[in-house]
Automatic annotation (TrEMBL):
Family: Belongs to the glycosyl hydrolase 43 family.
GO biological process: carbohydrate metabolic process
Superkingdom of origin organism: Bacteria
InterPro entries: GH43_arabinanases (IPR050727), Glyco_hydro_43 (IPR006710), Glyco_hydro_beta-prop_sf (IPR023296)
Protein name, UniProt field: Glycosyl hydrolase family 43
Source organism of this protein record: Saliterribacillus persicus
Pathway: Glycan metabolism; L-arabinan degradation
Alphabetical keyword list: Glycosidase, Hydrolase
Pfam families: Glyco_hydro_43
Length: 297
């Protein structure tokens, strides 16, 4: 049994299995997250503090299309199976992209489902997440990276019903600089322009029906978590942005979920420094679409 303080993990994603009364905690679990990838693990628990594991859920074979940057796995139930959306650095062209894996169990093993990454081949992309629209049509929301375009963007693309391929071209939902809270930075080697980061999009339907999008960026070089809102309730937007980030204490790549007692929880990793990153869980309150830290009663 391990506790959160002992788990080195980035990009936490929790699957709540109500029938078992268990939480499944996935994330970027390689010790050297920036180098050679070994796969993904899962932790299983019933209280968001004490966990069994880690258990391996994905290990690549020698023919897998990536050897580096195994990042940000999310697991979604869809059409009777479990699908993992995860980011990999491609062997063939050295660019990152999100691919889709599949398993019959939350414990895996997850096996390649899509034919490599489904993000555009020539793009640096990452952090794909599944979204079903009001007609239950599948979409993938992902980030087009700042390393390629400077002003990082959040994009959406339709998926085929079997989640193997995309339909049509991605649409840009917004760029990071359109929100009032992220700040720019200049990179010493990659480029010297004003860069803005987009990381870790996650879609959440608020109780009042609003469609929210969590995503991460930086404020004065400190990792932070913010929220944007669709003005139409549709994934294509247009999007408006909360003026202030919801978390500014060097943490991000978060997601919202309801725990087994129906409490709203924000999980993200903090601090944003390897090997010190840990999953943290913050009780939240929702008030007419506004999400904030739960106040002590």
């Amino acid at each position: 049994m391990v506790q959160n303080k002992d788990i080195q993990l980035r990009d936490p994603f929790v699957y709540v299995n109500e029938s078992e009364g268990k939480y499944y905690l996935y994330g970027s679990t390689d010790k050297n997250i920036w180098g050679k990838g070994t796969g993904f693990d899962v932790y299983v628990g019933d209280d968001l503090e004490n966990w069994e594991g880690p258990y391996p859920v994905f290990r690549p074979d020698q023919h897998f299309y990536s050897e580096e940057n195994f990042w940000a796995p999310e697991v979604h139930a869809y059409d009777g199976s479990y699908y993992m959306f995860a980011t990999f650095l491609r062997k063939d062209n050295g660019k990152r992209g999100t691919a889709i894996l599949k398993a019959d169990s939350l414990m895996g093993p997850f096996l390649p489902h899509s034919d490599g990454p489904v993000t555009p081949e020539g793009w640096y992309s990452l952090d794909g997440t599944l979204h079903l629209d009001e007609e239950d049509k599948p979409w993938m929301i992902f980030c087009h990276e700042w390393v390629q375009i400077g002003d990082g963007s959040v994009c959406a693309v339709r998926l085929t019903e079997d989640l193997k391929e995309t339909i049509g071209k991605p649409v840009t939902l917004f760029n990071a600089s359109e929100a009032p809270w992220p700040t720019s930075f200049k990179h010493k080697t990659r480029n010297t322009q004003d860069n803005y980061v987009t990381d870790g999009p996650f879609v959440y339907r608020a109780e009042n029906g609003e469609l929210l999008l969590l995503w991460a960026s930086f404020v004065d070089n400190v990792y932070a978590q913010g929220i944007s809102r669709s003005m139409t309730g549709d994934i294509k937007g247009p999007w408006i942005h909360d003026a202030e980030p919801m978390f500014t204490s060097d943490g991000g790549h978060g997601m919202l979920f309801h725990d087994l007692k129906d409490n709203l929880i924000l999980t993200l990793h903090s601090p944003n420094k390897t090997p010190e990153e840990r999953p943290i869980f913050i009780p939240m309150e929702e008030n007419d679409g506004k999400i904030g830290g739960k106040k002590d009663e």
